[in-house]
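Model: Ready when you are.
Researcher: Fold this.
Model:
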Amino acid sequence: MFSNYLIGLREGLEASLVVCILIAYLVKTDRRDALKPIWTGIGVAVALALGFGCALEFGSQELTFEAQEALGGSLSILAVCLVTWMVFWMRRTARHLKADLHGKLDAALQMGTGALVATAFLAVGREGLETALFVWASVRAAGDGTPRPLVGVALGIATAIVLGWLFYRGALRINLAKFFTWTGAMLVVVAAGVLAYGFHDLQEADWLPGLNSKAFDISGTIPPDSWYGTLLKGIFNFQPDPTVLQVTVWLLYLIPTLALFFAPVGFASGKGKVADEQGSRPSKAAQPSQSSQD
């Protein structure tokens, strides 16, 4: 449940910051007439993400077991690739997000209503589709048959909406650079478990060999149905009897990815650190836009 809460919080907060930047810019430039198209684009993006999630869940139920495992494994790997790209992208470019969105919004204001709808849709829709895919893959990996993963996602998104509103109102100050760094690192750990489970799905679909080659089996020490086994599975997608391929994939993804993620080269400079420090102390009048630069 915690891993899914983290997914909802991280992705939801990114989307909330985007919405705050768009709305705050229109309000500050006295273009409240453009708010309706912006909300329309946001609504369409949310509906598309929900529809995509439903299609993944209910569409896969009509497939054979092998086809379900092949689809689940393939989409799990795709979800990990997208999330990995997202955490690195946000780490590198978050401080420039405000300027990029303002430029796109200025161009859309000149082009008309349809362009405003498209701008909001594209800005929020990417986050929504990534969230739907990664949540679906994470829920499959959890595989406990309970609604707890979905509850965790819903709570994470609700928290993100509240935080976004507080940012907009200037009632909350937080170092977003550190927030996105540490939540990004935790998402990499979650993604490693989803990736390993995805390869296990492909083994069960007979796409990859080695299904019966176990790296170890500690089911007697950590029973999967125990409270601590469930906790480990819910947070890290831990499996007490993984295959050799699963452990290999987990290690080959997690160690290099975390090393690159925390590497200072290419991610932080003196100028960037100054921007981060300034963004952590935003003024009330420009809270959403300056916070998002972190």
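Researcher: Now this one.
Model:
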Amino acid sequence: MHDAASLGEDLRRHLVHLEVERRLAQRTLTLYRDALQRLQAFSAEARLASPRVAQVHHVRRWAAQLHAQGLASRSIALVLSAWRGYYRWAGREGLVALNPVEGVRAPKAAKPLPKALSVDHAVALAEQTDEHGDPALAARDHCIVELLYGCGLRVGELVGLDVQPSAAAAGWIDAADAAAHVLGKGSKRRSVPVGGPALIALRAWLDQRSTMAAQGEPALFVSQRGTRLTASQVRSRLKTRALQAGLPTHVHPHMLRHSFASHLLQSSGDLRAVQELLGHANITTTQVYTKLDFQHLAKVYDAAHPRAKKR
């Protein structure tokens, strides 16, 4: 096996066990061999007689070193899995009394920041018109964008809206009160303000809705078949609209919710208000948008401030 000779006897035997008895794929064997070489190198640096005598505190320190070296969380998890497997095998062989990797986990991967559109791109998407398309579809899609971006609705909340309020309705829009009443996660109801452009778009869609909706259909937004629009259909229509608007990125419903939150926070700085509008039960969920806001400020600083970069 390639490079296996550089490993100590125990690690070589374990690798043979993986290849012959476990019959792991060559790619997996290569990854495990690399992980075992790391284990051997760390043991040598710690001046241990062999990896057999490693303790939990050694493994924790080595995992931290991998993290400090820039290894991704998933890669560290794979290394730890390979080490854990070696010590389990060594335990069955009577070579070690304990598995020092049990209970040691890779550092949590940083959650990727939600992507948000720029204000210009969000407005361009909302104002996109298709003069040659179906006017009813155009009115519906325009209203959808205005509500997703203008109110920060989840796509499930949007498609759950009914034309009229009722005990059975998941949500509805009170145009007279300029408010959307929706059923969010955890069956929690909330009300959010509806802006002027969204109200105008709503009126335009309601003028066209009867040409598409099946008789007795309660849904505010319907497909060309006349029944309630689905979340996947909304995603598809948004993708098409974004392409027509010339946006340089893939747009999906949750991106408009992120855009709503980040643009509102940039303007107001009121995290609690944004939390209420989004319907987040915990403020920590909303705090991700402070990172988005900082990213925006950092870009402005880097581009404009004379001391941002060394000349």
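Researcher: Key takeaway?
Model: Strands lie at 161-162, 171-174, 179-183, 189-193.
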